[in-house]
Amino acid sequence: MTLPSRLLLAAVLGAAALVPAAFAQETSNAVPPTATVAPVLVTLETTAGSIVLELDANAAPVTVANFVQYVKEGFYDGTIFHRVIPSFMIQGGGYDKGLARKQTHAPIAAESRNGLHNVRGSIAMARTSDPNSATAQFFINVVDNSMLDYPSRDGTGYTVFGHVVSGMEAVDRIRDLPTVARSPEFANLPENLPVIVHARLGK
User: Fold this and answer.
1) CB atoms within 10 A of CB 41
2) How far from the centroid of its chain's Cα atoms is residue 87's Cα?
3) CA–CA gap between residue 156 and residue 148 (Å, rounded)
4) 86 pairs with which residues across the strands?
5) Are 102 and 94 in contact (CB under 8 A)?
6) For the segment 81-99, what is each residue's pLDDT rounded down to a tens digit?
7) Percent of the chain with pLDDT over 90
8) pLDDT, greater one: 23 or 40
């Protein structure tokens, strides 16, 4: 299986299944520090409209710092939402409009045991079967997906690190786009690619 294929979020629908428990391993799922940090706002200006995210640096400090670094570097500019499942989530942040995978920094440790939940409008990190493999790809839940919460089936689950505070209508427009199966790694690819034109800190 190729790395781009493995980077797809473990599917919950159809023939796909969540990563089996055999892949579970120890992670750095420590309880977040008690010091209060102000929420971080990030705006994704997309071809479907603007999506404003509020990131919880108290619950997921490593994940938020990682995401903010990519935003500051302009990494997400020009990337697409390449995986859209209407009854599940929309996933993006890893490929450009030519479907080329972008080079990322080193993976980060999971922070899924932070009390945040994979509910509609929440943003979480995509990863491989290795709990500590998340890099840049993320997904926004379009329904409640409690099966992804810690501990899930693999003992870790998926790290939620914020939620949409404005622009769910843009998320839903992406959710409703017709999709095609281009290849195994692009099995739910929107016919008209939704692009993150620009990602920036603040509203």
Assistant:
1) 16
2) 16
3) 9
4) none
5) yes
6) 999 999 999 999 999 999 9
7) 82
8) 40
**HEC string for 11-59:** CCCCCCCCCCHHHCCCCCCCCCCCCCCCCEEEEEEECCEEEEEEECCCC
Over 80: is that where the pLDDT of 1 sits?
no
> Whole-model pTM?
0.84
Q: What CATH code is assigned to 3-9+38-201?
A: 2.40.100.10
Q: Tokens 């570097």 identify what position? A: 73
Total number of residues shown for the chain:
203
> Domain segments of the chain: what residues?
3-9+38-201
Contacts of 127 (CB under 8 A, 6+ apart): 7, 9, 107, 110, 133, 134, 137, 158
Residue 158 vs residues 29, 66, 117, 124, 127: alpha-carbon distances, Å: 11, 15, 9, 6, 8
| Structure token digits, residue 127 | 């990863």
